[in-house]
Amino acid sequence: MSKSKNLLYPEKWLSRASTGVRVACELRMRIISGLIESGTILSENKLAAEFSVSRSPIREALKILASEKIIRLERMGAVVIGLTEKEIGEIYDVRLVMETFVFEQLGRANVDELVTDLSKILEMMKVSIKYKDADEFSFQDVLFHETIVRSINH
């Protein structure tokens, strides 16, 4: 898969993943973000050309997304099913429950080390903004939230 600044999914997270998994992650992000709309037909040949890979990893990616019911496989490719408003709402509900739990736990903890760790991550985010590195910013953003969750040993 060729390096492209147009990728939504941070490459650092996928450094050890197969090409098919990397393509699936990128397509999933594009579908969830609305960049690829529900009803769009995905062609193996067009995707292979876009990602500069053979059709085998594309087939692997499409099978992964079909198993998640994000797309529907058809004879001539795949059709994007996407997420319903209800499913998107459920994702936000789960996030709210998780974050509420984490902050309740943090209220009882010594957060000095956490503050130091988060400050370092925020500095990295500032650097990524300065150099317009969206991939690095996304990575640091998720790392920020993961660091908070891990600080309560979860």
Report what the structure shows.
This protein has 154 residues and is mainly α. The protein folds into 2 domains: 11-80, Arc Repressor Mutant, subunit A; 85-150. Helices cover 61% and strands 6% of the residues. It contains 6 helices and 3 strands; from the N terminus they run αβααββααα. The chain has helices spanning 19-33, 44-51, 55-67, 85-106, 112-130, 134-150; strands at 41-42, 71-74, 77-80. Strands 1-3-2 form a 3-stranded antiparallel sheet. Strand 2 and strand 3 (77-80) form a beta hairpin. The protein is globular and about 55 Å long. The model has no long low-confidence stretch (mean pLDDT 86).
Provide tags for this entry.
154 residues; Arc Repressor Mutant, subunit A; 2 domains; 3-stranded antiparallel beta sheet; 6 helices; 6% strand; globular
Assign an overall shape. Answer: globular
Helix share bin: 55-70%
* Strand content range: 5-15%
The ordered string of helix (H) and strand (E) elements is HEHHEEHHH
Helix/sheet category: mainly alpha
- The beta-strand count equals 3
Under CATH, the topology of the largest domain can be stated as: Arc Repressor Mutant, subunit A
Domain module count = 2
Tally of alpha and pi helices = 6
Order of strands across the biggest sheet? 1-3-2
Largest sheet: 3 strands, antiparallel
User: CATH superfamily of the largest domain, please?
Assistant: Winged helix-like DNA-binding domain superfamily/Winged helix DNA-binding domain
Measured on Cα atoms, how large is the radius of gyration?
18 Å
For the termini, the CA-CA separation is: 33 Å
Average pLDDT = 86
Low-confidence stretches: none
